[in-house]
Amino acid sequence: MAVLDREIQTALDTTRDRYGRTVHHRAEAAARARRNQTALSLYAAQLVPHADPLLDAARSTLDTLPQARHTSAWRDLLDALVTSHTEITGALECPATQGTSAEREQHAAVWPHLVFWAEHGSLAADLAEASRFRQQPGTGLTAEERQMWTEMAQAAQQRRELDLIESWYAADGRLITLAYLIDDDTDTVIALASDPDAPGWEVIGHFDNEYTASLALPRPVPPGVLRADAASRFNRPEPAPEQPLQDLLRDVIEARGASEVSEALLSATQMGYAAGPVVRLAQLLDTAAEFSHALNTVQGRQIGARLEALGRQVAFLAREVHDAAEDLGATVAVLPPHRTPKPPRIRSRPALDTTPPAPPARTASPARRL
To answer: Which residues of the chain have pLDDT under 50?
Structure first.
């Protein structure tokens, strides 16, 4: 599906102008129809024979997992996958007449279900692989050993000698973090449970290397998403028209009057649907701050607060630039004529009907005396 999506996006790019607006509507409709038909054929060939056993195995695994905040949401996703599979198989069993508008409408209606499987079918595959969620052998640490290693890790953290490697969530909802514990030029891989920057975390294991840790620790489960109702990457809306910042910079360099520069600055700070790049930067910072807060960690909240402050500063900057652009446009000024362009550095070439100059005569070198 990802390969198909890249191919179709390349085709759709040829139907748009430099600002992302669709200008060849028939070609765009043909590309989308071809995408829908190809995706449906791929689903029929690769998933229809396996979808029902896959979903049954996923449900069986889910029933054995401990209750956590994500398990009920996973159950809802599996129910939705069943519904989408039913809709897709219905279209395959009762296809509309080939080449008609009814067929195109049928494929367009089933496309969101194909997209849903492309996005979330991996969850069913992960759950069907029951070994991913089996109880691992464990680390074998006693309560006293856990306390000892935790105190060592806390001391290393205060010395800034605790280097985090990676983190993931286990099936029971625990946050697991791998880290290097540096002590006397030796690195020991340790596993922490809970947020390393919040009070209450503890060491649950120490290992010779990361591979050994992966064999003993709970396996990672699929991470979450920032927005549950966000558009799928396979079904994104058409991008809003946007002028690249480098185009606006070129417009300013090539401008002769203040009104042209004012227009470029106003475009950079335009609000609304066709927002300018400065406004988009503020939106990017706000969304990144939302993501950082959603990590639900101490560091995530701190960085999210920094990004929020930066977003407010960029938003203030956008307003100031907008006001300055309006003031510049009101000057109705032009560049003075003494700012003339420099002549291009072009070497003159002889005319085609002229004879090139003769090379200088070679003079005989004096004889050398022996």
So the answer is: 370
